[in-house]
Protein 1
Amino acid sequence: MRDLKGISVGYWVTHGLFSLWMLFTAYAEVAIAPARAEFVQMGIPDYLRVELSIAKVIGVLVLLLPVSPRLKEWAYAGFAINLVSAVVAHLAIGEGAAKYMWAVVAALLLAACYFFWRKREVRTYEVGK
């Protein structure tokens, strides 16, 4: 049981940090001019910027609310695709590491989230047996 408590703490800490990070970036992409300008500089259409922000908010809700494991898997995959695409977009226009490291760090945090989620799912299943 003690192991499950540690896994749960890791789960909520990583998911809390990642969720705050994604909610802030979703807000910034819509409301902060320099963030909007980054999308223009990369040649990403305005509608896609808004769509990505909405998808981030929905993804955060899916990660934090009690929904089916399959839906959570899709949210993790969506965030992974989003973060890898961010790194690729910055590299494609020749920007340095300072511009895309936020996405790399967020991806590492996402990996930790996924690790704790999987551990928690397995432990919860074992305890419930």
Protein 2
Amino acid sequence: MGSIILRQVEHHMLVASDSRGASIVIGLSQDPEFPGLGAKASDLLLMAVASCSAYDVIEILAKQRQEYRDFKVVCTGDQLSEPPYTFTSIHLHFSLRGKIVPEKLENAIQLSVHKYCSVVNTIRPDTPVTHDFEILP
């Protein structure tokens, strides 16, 4: 079972620690002495989608012996303009450089998005998740 701990630091500033003890600051500070911005809570969902899928794709590409560098994922999400600001769609764009067979990369992404990524498979089918990729020279 997954478990996190969330603690309030000040009014709208929070710190969350994952099951391994790694922490992330969420929200924003109201204290003029210590102004600070943490991650936007709704962006954490996009980060979770991107990192979960990226982990799978990296593992699959390694097993396929695909040589690459400069691995990057841009994850965008459309949200309703009124509360509760639900995500209506999410898109993953993978960008890599190297000697990659496009069909192998597509297969790796498909396996992640449709089989292995727990985050994507938790939010789907209510929120469609699409993807594309580019292999840079």
Protein 3
Amino acid sequence: MGPLVAGVLAQHGVRVGLVGRSVESARAGARRAVEHARSDCILSSITCLDYESAQSVLSSADWVIECAAEDIAVKRSVLDVAARFSRRTAVVSSTTSSMPLGVLADGRSLEFRRRFLGVHFFNPPTKMLLCELAPTSDTSPAVASHMASFLSQRLGRVVVHVRNVPGYAGNRVGFRVMNMAALLAEHLGVAVVDQACGPWTGRAMPPLATLDLVGLDVYCAIMASLRRSTSQDISDVLSVPRYVQDLVRAGRLGAKAAGLGGIYRRSTTGVEEVWEVGEGRYAPAIRPVSPFVRCAVSLIRNGRVQRAFELLMDDGSREADVARRFLATYVAYSYACIGTVTDQALGISGIDLAMVHGFGWAPPSLLLGLMGGAGAIIQLCSRDGIACPAHLAAAAPTLWHPSYGRYFRAIGD
């Protein structure tokens, strides 16, 4: 993430010092930034450094961004350097969303803690505009206000103010729901779940394919953090399924694992394969034939989104049932986060913005309306033993512009 954030800053005319374990690793990061920005002119704004040569840059920087691995010891060691060499007026931020910021700031001076906060970019930041801003109880309000303005006005980010809770808004909702899909795949298989909950339901990619893109190790780390810290989860289903844990232990982390793959992989002959959960092996990925999904996708292709969701609510097939459970959980959990993750005054709008601009998913308030309103969602949740938050019971569907059809892609039949 560090090189890509550096690329975004450079694209907006900000001079950046990109610090790596070595100058060569920093240069490799700069090349990644160029690939994502599709412009080599940003290199003139990026200086590549190692930790030994970073002191001069840190002492003059206005903003120090920690983007180290999701390991508390590693992050604290990087922040030790930032605390030692950064200017007293420099903002220091962490890109983590899974680790408590208080642990990272613990033992540091009040002067440091007042200029320290969480600034969470989404991957890839060249496409996903969401930036979650998480001040701690010690962060100066002036620092938080300044960063909100800089992120939105200078960098063109969609800023959502969140509380200092693991997962913040986007990952807390997104990974909770994708974990449900991974659990369903234990019994139904990967292909069935990804087809039933595919892009036609209002997301850029099917949920299990998304986990592969993110990285199964990152997914496991985020879920572990949520299990340790979340007491208000509405269904108590936060355990990563065993087959995913087995894949991670084998180094099959997803798209970043090259030939090893993850839930999906590309064979040496170029054939797409999928992990057969019950058999513990890969097999050619064959999309199951689902008349319901085929009909829903056809309706989406013809712009009849509302009719596709009426079909979803009425159809008796296994795939329709999976999609209803998946989407009802998404909507209900989103409303459960109001007042605990985002300020209550924002209502559902903060969660809507997080899911649209961080994940490219249809906003939960829109799905609430498409699925028949709060009563229909509550009925689905009650059937599955999911407690419904008070904010959901009082929710009114949001009236969205007719362009909402852009969230639903005719893929999956």
